Amino acid sequence: MNALYFVLGFPLLGSAVLAFTGHRDFARNVNVGFSLATFIAACVLTAQIIAFGPVFVLGQQFFVDPLNMFLVTLTAFVGLTTALFSRPYMRVEQDRGKMTPPRMRLYHGMYQLFSFTMLLALTTNNLGILWVAMEAATLTTVLLVSVYRTSASLEAAWKYFILCGVGIAQALFGTVLLYMAAEKVLGSQGATLLWTSLDAVKTQLDPSIVTLAFAFLLIGYGAKVGMVPLHSWLPDAHAEGPTPVSAVLSGLLLNVAMYAVLRCKVLTDGALQQPLAGQLMMGFGLLSVVVASFFLSRQKDVKRMFSYSSIEHMGLITFAFGMGGPIANFAGLLHMTVHSLVKSAIFYTVGHATQKAGTQVMGDIRGLIKVNPTVGWGLMLGVMAILGMPPFGVFASEFLILTTAMREQPWATPFLFLALGVAFASVLIRVLPMVFGETSLKPLAHPPALLPVFIHLGFGLMLGLYIPPYLNTWYVQAAHMLGG
Amino acid sequence: MSILGLLSQLMAIVLALALAPLLSGWVNQWRARLQNKSAPGLLQPYRALRKLFNKESVLAEHASPLFRMAPYIVFGCMLLASAIVPTLSTDLPLSPAADAIALVGLFALARVFISLAAMDVGTAFGSLGARREMLVGFLAEPALLMVLFCASMISRSTSLTTIVETLAHRELAIYPSLLVAGVAFTMVSLAENARVPVDNPETHLELTMIHEALILEYSGRHLALLEWAASLKLFAYSCVGLALFFPWGVAQADAPMALLLALFVLVLKLAVGGFALACVETLSAKMRIFRVPEFLATAFLLAVIGLLVNILLGVS
Amino acid sequence: MIKFVPQLINLFATLILMLSFAMISQRRIVSLINLFTMQGAALVAASVLLGYATHQPDLYVSAGLTLALKVVLIPWLLHRVIRRLNVRWDVETLINIPTTMLVGIALVIFSFSLALPISRLSSSIAGGSLGIALACVLLSFMMMITRSKAVPQVIGFLSMENGLIFAATTVTNGMPMIVEFGIALDVLVGVLILGVFMFQIREKFDSLDIHNLEALKED
């Protein structure tokens, strides 16, 4: 029995169980239990891949190769740590009356279902199912964003649904066009939409159809990555829901959308033999970085500020993959990993801070170090990490990206430096008073779960200094497959 | 130009003159019946015309010669329009002049003269009617042109006789663009002939009248000519619609028996069309004046879509 | 008879396009839902015809799915929602209707020109309809942008899905079955969630005007 069945089966089973029992006290632990089971299954799968190489499951319907393997493990891992974080967090929310029993059932059930859809999107070989899973991932989180029923959260959820729905409809059109191009070469059996079959014949696909298809796919999946100009749903959606939801949205869903874009880029590069796809991605990535950093400097709400930071980092990743080549691709993959870890760690600490202060406005939160040193230091270190200070992993990947840019695309480097500089200054100016300074905050009723924060930051640090050999091999292999 | 062609041309003109009031009467009858009122007789428009011709024509003191000439010009335009539309046969001596654009030009000429005449006398209603008529016309004309272009694209000529010949005598084919153009044409003809939902032909309320305001100052033989011209316009529009969308039954050159058949088919088609018009008038509510531009803009854009669909689907 | 099939499919395609246009210019929400139902019916007819002409039973299943979902279930749900929410009229749009129509024409021209070279490459008999499908998608998109109430936005979204399914049907004789089922499931769940949403919005704001949902703008 391949471990992949368990990786997909546990979240699905978990969501069914929690849909009925999600409001009980033990539901939190059940949630953690299912996430743990998923993570263990993912580790087993990892071991299998290390031993045997890329694998097909269920007769070519699922395909696990270096590109999605580390993403699967990362998703399962962050899913586990977020479940750990959400235990005390949601208890406080329940005590304050913001989460009623039906909402808790919804929350827990959808949490596991969301993990399922993400893992499905990552491991499926069928481009049509990839689309279905991406849309399903949006649907599972939409109700979660609005769960507090404030006017701001309703607006955020509506915008999220409509913008992402419209965007992803464009991606469906792109998928249809890809299917059309594939049908001319492969005929119309079920294997026509499989990515591996398309990858094998990508040089024979008609260039004009594939160009149009990629344009739509980039618009569609790019909207879900948070590419400017289709990003306006992201700050609202990430800021208005409960913090565990923000953490998984920022940390995981953006990566899955990026993965979808990458799979399509590989096909497009093969069909066109021209760097059009890369150029589009570079342009939009750069635009995202610059626009996001400027919006970032004007934010007053802490979660919105970090959401713009997510847009900026995803823009950087898009730019890196757009440049292509072994180093840039490697850097992009590394950045995806460390950003995911560090951003979710930041959201954990921010979540606790906002819970203590009862507000998300940065001007009203002060002196975290005094009231809870671990939260304060966690936030400080997390911010250092995300801003690209050495020796954290973000520094390593940003360094690689910037040096490659200086070498190959020198026109872009001033913009990148400017944007990164603006972001650095803005975030630091706002976070320092939050962490230090006088405070009147009181400790929370339930001790916060800070172990996840430090585990994530530890990994972030480790990846900056030393990359395990199998991870290194995967990155190199994936970078090679992405074209370079 | 054959004897038969000349004959059919004369027949077409006489037929137009004779049948147009009958068509109006038919539509009025059905409208009344559908609205559960007692209907006027079928020949009522003839009686009205006869009454008006026997009455004295009263003119305002400062009415210019234009005011007196306009009814004749309008009547002449409408008669000519009815003559060039291939109603009975496609072998008309006037067919070189029977161009779709010329047809629209004739209607425009009539519209200009009647608007000028309405403003001539200087009453408030006249200017009001002229303004509204121009509003409707300015939007309806491009729509009508587009509809005619749709059909001409299929037959590769703007000559009405060529269009009818191509559409009638080709093998049966479904042209989606003609479906769209048909809807647009219906909307345009409702607007141009002053029918509900654009204008109520029976109203004399200031708020609602367009066509009636233009002829308010006329009396006697002038009014008779204008009323006849209005029925001729309806007749011409119906014949254009039938020629474009239901062209079967029109006789070709040198087929005398076919002329009689064509006459019979024409009367039948007009009867059905008139009934349909009465239904549309009964089922719709008159729309407010400022919504009329939207209505006509929709018609125009539908016609443009018909054109585009023609190009896209490559109907040859 | 068989040679009429491409023409009939083109006819249904034109009908779908006309209905998209009619939806843009429509003010009453009940008429919007009815137009949407008619569009679904035209789509079902086109799928059935194409399935008959190409002897592919998959298209019959797809047509059945569209019938059950877009012609029966979703309009029924929408009618129920608007009855309970008591919305009947959508009086204003963000830009006036003639301008909307002109923009719509520009979108139609754009999509036709984009799709013309590609539809020539299609191997399906109804390949010419790709431009029409793309035009429907863009027109629905515009309808979503220019409406200020929630229900027309939802209908625009669903109409966009119609256009996409039509594109998939005509250009490639339908997608693989599992993908079609997945898409149908997504659409159904999406509509249910939107329905829930509209109640939440109504509860919060006492109105379904989207202008209430503009507080989180960037300033």
Per DSSP E runs of 2 or more residues, the count of β-strands of chain B stands at: 0
C-alpha termini separation of chain B:
30 Å
Assess the beta-strand content of chain C as a share of residues: under 5%
Query: SSE order of chain C in H/E notation?
Result: HHHHHHH
- The helical percent of chain B reads over 70%
**Measured on Cα atoms, how large is the radius of gyration of chain C?**
18 Å
Count every helix of chain C, treating DSSP H or I runs of 4 or more residues as helices.
7
Major sheet attributes of chain B = none
β-strand percent of chain B reads: under 5%
Jot down its keywords.
heterotrimer, A: 484 residues, mainly alpha, two-stranded antiparallel sheet, 19 helices, 1% strand, C: 219 residues, 76% helix, globular
Describe, in plain words, how this protein is organized in 3D.
The complex is a heterotrimer of chains A (484), B (316) and C (219). Chain A has 484 residues and is mainly α. Chain A has helices at 3-21, 27-52, 66-95, 101-123, 127-145, 151-186, 195-200, 207-225, 233-240, 243-272, 276-296, 302-323, 326-357, 368-371, 373-386, 393-408, 413-435, 451-465, 469-481; strands at residues 55-57, 62-64. In chain A, strands 1-2 form a two-stranded antiparallel sheet. In chain A, helix 13 packs antiparallel against helix 18 (451-465). Chain B is mainly α and 316 residues long. Helices cover 71% and strands 0% of the residues of chain B. Chain B has helices at residues 3-34, 44-54, 65-84, 100-120, 124-155, 160-169, 176-192, 211-214, 220-245, 256-283, 292-313. In chain B, helix 3 (65-84) runs parallel beside helix 9. Chain B is globular, with a radius of gyration of 19 Å. In chain C, 76% of the residues lie in helices and 0% in strands. Chain C has seven helices and no strands. Chain C has helices at 5-24, 29-54, 57-85, 97-119, 130-146, 150-172, 177-205. The mean pLDDT of chain C is 81. The chains are: A mainly alpha (484), B mainly alpha (316), C mainly alpha (219). Chains in contact: A-C, B-C.
